[in-house]
Amino acid sequence: MRVFVTGSTGWIGSATVDELLQNGHEVLGLARSDAGASKLKAKGAAVLRGDLDTPAVFGAGARDADAVVHLANKHDWADPEGNDRVQLSAVEAILEALDGSAKPFVISNGLSGIVDGRPVLETDASPAVGPDSDRAGTENLALEAVSRGIRSIAVRFAPTVHGRGDWGFVNWLAAAARKQGVSGYIGNGSAEWSAVHVTDAARLIRLGLESGAAGTRMHAVAEQSISTKAIAEALGEALGLPVTSIDPADAGEHFGVVGHFFGQTMTGSSELTRERLGWQPTGPGLVEDILAGAYSAD
């Protein structure tokens, strides 16, 4: 397949491009910069220039491919409403281009905010519906488009998609630990996160494109539950720093933006995902990755 990948030079996107190319697929990657375009070309991928502020490009990429993986996200924590607006425009452009095509469309989401008090299941629908909801309700919008002849599939990522070179939450926790001189956890550290290695997440995306059923949700979850205290302890050991509890009232000041998430339990099951797609994670676990030095470099 020729696969149009948005967010193709990002953390998960880069691994997805590698996974697709290594398994015989062609890639058309969206790139917003010369550096990103050069990176894609060096891998053997074709390049489409554009970004989330140019939604027409998303439609053009979808029309010029056999399948679409939408991973692009501005991650502008200061303007969530703006993020949602551009997400909606991009997804609408992709869906319009894919109407009636039967092409696979994998759209990304997270586990947070779907259910409370237990791990999220693949059968749990996202409560985000409509343009004023989280991510402008684009997961549901995409899954509803199955009725329009699109093989839409949602992939929900664990809160940490980890590995050497990670730009995300655990990297921010490590940066906060270096800055503060201690590796912290919030309160008693009983909040829990799911985790998945980036290579396992990329493989799941490929499997979904190749054989995922229309209208289903896949969970990129290798480890269902790791306490935030265990994450902090692993970072402390890897960085040679003491480990301490941080008062919830001080979490924002101590951790920055990631403090809002580090105090939340965000877990999900991947039992159905494994059963349906034969996906078996093989990458290192989160604590193993941390202790092996994946987050030790500044």
TrEMBL record:
Transmembrane segments: none annotated. InterPro entries: Epimerase_deHydtase, NAD(P)-bd_dom_sf, NAD(P)-dependent_oxidoreduct. It comes from the Bacteria. Signal peptide: none annotated. Residues 3-215 form the NAD-dependent epimerase/dehydratase domain. Pfam families: Epimerase. This is SDR family oxidoreductase. It comes from Gryllotalpicola kribbensis.
